[in-house]
Amino acid sequence: MGGGGFLRIRLDLSYDGGPFNGWAIQPGLRTVQGVLEEAVALLVRRPVRVTVAGRTDAGVHARGQVVHVDLTEAEWLGLPRGHELDPGVAMLRRIRGALSRGLGDLTGSIEVHRVSLAAEGFDARFSALWRRYSYRIADGPALWDPLERYFTLWHKNPLDVSLLNEGASKLLGLQNFLSYCKPREGATTVRELQRFEFARGEDGVIVATVQADAFCHNMVRSLVGSALFVGEGVEEPEWLYERLLAKKRDAKSVLAAPHPLVLEEVAYPTDGEMLARAELTRAKREH
Q: Tell me: the pLDDT tens digits for 186-217?
């Protein structure tokens, strides 16, 4: 149950962030949250509010995003509209049409892949164990593929992957990432960075993997943007950790472009541990 007699519904989705002004609702702007809420509202015939695992900036994509929405039992059971269908299957079928209605020529830029009753205590945001992002970098004109330009950074100068990884490894663990965040008022900037690594694929393109229990605003783009200085040899690998210790933002607090960034996966505990995880995370965020 989602509280107040409501059922909590989990939606797993992906989207192309290019046409949107980020995840969060903004007056007069097209956002992923806005379009998704309008689609669900069309199905249940009332305004709804969804909660997301990880808010993404304008232009950032998601392959493994998770949200929850609370519906009444009557709304949930009414989704099949008299057909002998599981409500989750019915909602999945119907929401595609509702999204298409809201997206028009952008149909297909948001896809819901799974709809299910959430486990007891599930919260898309607070129950998450970690989020994992990827970031593609083509370092040099020989690697610039026009067919991949909408989700790959075209970086003019060659990058040394070993230097990138040497610098990135020093930031792992539980740290205060104020130097790499745009802090929100009253919110903590302490995060556990679990993975920050770079690998060059067979196609020559570098893919960064960044994973943490949670991310503060602009954190992934700031980490990658700063790491590029190290990969080019402009700064020593130790510089990334020195910036972390400084706990300040300055002229070298550069954000990497948003379009190569993809939220790949959000991990959750077993069903029986959802509530405990959510309560623990809320306690951390409040202090």
A: 788 999 999 999 999 999 999 999 999 999 99
Question: 190 and 81 share a domain?
Answer: no
The C-alpha atoms of residue 278 and residue 75 are separated, in whole angstroms, by: 26
pLDDT in tens, 32-41: 999 999 999 9
Range of the domain at 134: 130-264
Active site residue 70: no
* Whole-number pLDDT of residue 277: 77
- Asked if residue 154 and residue 108 are part of one domain, the reply reads no
pLDDT at 185: 81
Residues 146 and 105 in one domain: no
- For the whole model, what pTM was predicted? 0.93
- What would the two tokens of residue 245 be? 């210790």
Phi-psi region of 195 (alpha: psi -120 to 50; beta: other; left: phi over 0): beta
Residue 122 has pLDDT above 70, yes or no: yes
How many other C-beta atoms lie within 10 A of the C-beta of residue 249?
16
Where do we find the tokens 């790949």?
A: 264
Are 105 and 141 in the same domain?
no
Domain total for the chain? 2
Give, as one character, the DSSP assignment of residue 247: T
Kindly tell me the burial class for residue 103, based on how many C-beta atoms sit within 10 Å of its own C-beta (0-12, 13-18, 19 or more): middle
Options 12, 16, 57, 123, the catalytic residue:
57
Q: What is the CATH number of the domain that holds 40?
A: 3.30.70.580
pLDDT digits (tens, 9 = 90+) for 258-274: 999 999 999 999 878 77
Does residue 183 surpass a pLDDT of 90? Answer: no
- Cα 3 to Cα 71, 122, 185: the distances in Å are 10, 11, 28
Mark out the alpha helices in the chain (DSSP H runs): 32-44, 73-77, 87-103, 161-169, 219-231, 238-246, 274-285
Contact between residue 59 and residue 82 where contact means Cβ atoms under 8 Å apart: no
